[in-house]
Structure formats: C-alpha cells, structure tokens
Amino acid sequence: MKKLWYLFMLVFLVVILAACGGEQSSTNTPGKTTDKEETKTEEQKTETTETATESGGTIKIGVLASLTGALESYGKQTQKGFELGLEYATGGTMEVAGKKIEIVYEDTETKPEVAVQKATKLLEDDKVDFLVGSSSSGDTLAVLPLAEEYEKIMIVEPAVADSITGSEFNPYIFRTARNSSQDAYAAAAAIAGEGVKIATFAPDYSFGWDGVSAFKDAALALGAEIVAEEYAPADATDFTSNLQKIIDSKPDYLFVVWAGANSPWGQINDMKLQENGIKVSTGAPDIPALKTMGQLVGMEGFSVYYHTLPDNPINDWLVDEHKKRHNGEVPDLFTPGGFAAAMAIVTALEKSGGDADGNKLIPLMEGMSFETPKGTMTFRPEDHQALQPLYSVTLQEVDGFDYPVPVLIRELSPSETEPPIRN
C-alpha cells in the first residue's frame, strides 16, 4: 500500500509540473503573443504607455499671484521669473529627482477672501505639493493657516509683511522674498542719523504698517526722530491731505513705503515737497513706477533688484533669456523673486530625493542655501526668512532711458540687512 501511495504522488507531481511548464512556455516564447495580447486595443496600449511615463510621479506646484488688479504687474513678474527659474534649475527638463513638474496658476485678484478660495481649490482639487505666493501681504496672511492645515510647504514670494515670518509664522512657511525689516535696515542706512527728522507715508494695510514699524525701529536706533506717520487707503488715488500734513511737520526726509500702480509719486512732485526742503527716500520700485519719478533724480535709497545691480552668471542668464522670450524686456523688480522661489523648491526636492512631504522637507530646508539671480540666499532656521543681498542706490539720469535708473552705491550683504527674529 505504501508503495502504491508513493507511486500515485509521483505521477501527480509529474502531471502538475508538466502543466506549469507548458503554461510558462506558452507565455514567454520570443516573438509570440497570446490571444489576449493580440486583441489589446490601441487605446489600451496608449494608456499603458502613459502609465509607464508617469510612474516617476509628478510634483504639482500651485502659484497664487495677483494676475489682475492693482498688483497685476507684480504677479506677472513673479510668474515669468518662476517659469524661468524652474527651467534654469532643472536644465530645461522640467523634472527633478525623476519626477515631472507641473504648475497651476491661480489669480487672487488681490483679495484675501479670493486668495483663500483659490488656495483651497489648489490644495483639495488640484492636490498640489507646494504653494507659492502671493503678490499681496494681505492675501498671503489669509492663506498661511491653510499651509499648516494641509501640511504643505508654502514659499512666500513676493509678500514682505514682517508678520508672515513673525507673529503669523508656522513651520511650513519659507520666504524667498525679503521682509519689511530687511527693507527698513537698508532704507535707514541711507538716510537716518542723529537728529534727522523723518516723516513716513504708507498704504493702510499690513504691508504699510509693518514697513513703517520696521523702519522706525531702525531709524530710531540710529538717532533719528519720526515727526509724522501718514497712511492712505491701499486703493487711494488722491493723497493731498496726507502730503499736506507731512509738509506741515517739516521733516528733513520723507520715507515712502508703497506698492501698486496707484503710486503717490506724481502728487509728491506736484506738491513740490523737495522745493519745501523735504528730501524723498524710498525703495526703488519697478520700472513702470520709476517712470513717474523723474523729479527724484539724485534720491538716495535702496533697491530689492534692478537688472544691472547683481553681478553673477545666474542673473546674466536671467536677463538674456528674459529679453529673448519677452520682446526685449528686461526682468523687473519681482522677476528674480519668482526665480528664487523655483530654485528653492528644486534644491529642496534634490535634497529629499523627490519627496514632497512637508514634514520631511522642513528640517532639510532649515538653514538651506541656494543660488539665485541676487546671489546666495539662506533660509534662517529660526523663522525660515531668506537672508539675501540688497542694494544701496541713487537714482540717476542715464542716456537711452526714459526714467531715472537705480545706480549702485554698494551691495548690502545678507548679514548687514539681517532682520530681527519676530516669531
């Protein structure tokens, strides 16, 4: 009986092995396809190819910007810079760590409630891995809590309010834009001193408040006296009453913090502040605003960026490529900021091997240095503010230009303009 049982098991195994061998041979014979493969449709083959292409994954970046409204020019500068920055950082492949990069733009219309709506759409519907933006400090402050709620890294560019990396800071926020305090240190260095009387003028929202507050701290520390503070609605077009109060306060200098197309420069000229003995100082604005500042030739102030100020190969590449792609136009005030935001994201993803998980990226990005058209930037570990160069400039007439050109006095190093930690 035992022998019969062993014989039966041996025959059974031989049959099974033969069946398996036959099936394997049928499937793997070179040049031969199964009936199932022969009937596969072209559509199914296309789907298979697309799946293979996408197997490396996609990094989706949602960019919030003012593509319409008062800050439209800023939003479009950021957009152009971001696209060029991604191209430069990836060597033209638009891939990082084997993953394709996809950008989704949303217009905040420079309205905080719209910014929240668009950011929510990017996070929930588009499933973006990063947020970038936005043009307005008000829009940006409204969106910050969403980055923390969804645990996504948000690169803040170009909003500058101190509170973004100060009182409203959360660990998912990293800012490539300079903040109001960095501007203030540069501005105060240009005009403040013992006994100097200064008036300030700014828009009546977080950008203006933070800018003036930071400037006051820096100017007072240098011995200056603040004799007047005036704020106008962000959408105002008539600044007569504000400027008259400033004239009445008899300052030596008027320091102006402003952003947007509705700038006060025309009325400052019309009301002859300089003829009243008041020197005007500000951050050199974008080129359209510079065209309204013809009466301010000789003004000393600071600049975030003008295309002739930085001297490095990345800025040379940006200027050349921008001219080629945008009808000879040079990059403007916030173009290099968009570029820097792209460089920061690609650098971070290279460090993480393409992992876009916010919690894994935070420790990798804290203290991270990366190259930009302005030179090297570094995210300060304590508040994620990018330390960066700024420029002390004077506005001068230059042949061939229909606006006063910011001419370099000297580059202000990241350590010179390092702002206080306010979070």
From TrEMBL:
SUPFAM superfamilies assigned to the protein according to its UniProt record, in alphabetical order: Periplasmic binding protein-like I
Signal sequence region: 1-21
Keyword match Signal: yes
Source organism, top-level taxon: Bacteria
Ranges annotated as biased composition (Basic and acidic residues): 33-48
Statement: the UniProt record of this protein carries the keyword Flavoprotein: no
InterPro entries: BCAA_transport (IPR051010), Leu-bd (IPR028081), Peripla_BP_I (IPR028082)
Domain Leucine-binding protein: 58-396
Keywords: Signal
PROSITE patterns cross-referenced by the UniProt entry: PROKAR_LIPOPROTEIN
Region of interest (Disordered), residue spans: 24-54
Any matching Pfam family: Peripla_BP_6
Family classification: Belongs to the leucine-binding protein family.
Protein name: ABC transporter permease
